[in-house]
Write a sequence for this structure.
């Protein structure tokens, strides 16, 4: 992998199962339909939830953020469960 997209979200404990369902629902479409997608993992901590996306390039990671799948499907489905705006970061691997 050449890049990672990390999205960190604050989700109330009672809403974590719902957020997990969103992750599960869109994991396979992400892997099969998004150019350059290599992996998608859900990371749980007491203070937040993170989704780590692996890509073959930084450009494909950036492009995903403006894709229909992300903007219309994932963001819309997660919005009711978020306490605050997510922290979105892209890391390039060397």
């Amino acid at each position: 992998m050449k890049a990672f997209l990390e999205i960190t979200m604050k989700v109330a404990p009672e809403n974590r199962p719902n957020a997990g369902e969103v992750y599960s629902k869109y994991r396979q479409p992400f892997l099969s339909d998004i150019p350059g997608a290599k992996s998608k993992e859900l990371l749980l901590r007491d203070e937040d939830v993170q989704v780590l996306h692996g890509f073959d390039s930084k450009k494909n990671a950036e492009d995903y953020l403006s894709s229909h799948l992300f903007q219309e499907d994932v963001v819309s489905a997660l919005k009711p469960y978020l306490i605050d705006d997510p922290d979105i970061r892209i890391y390039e691997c060397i």
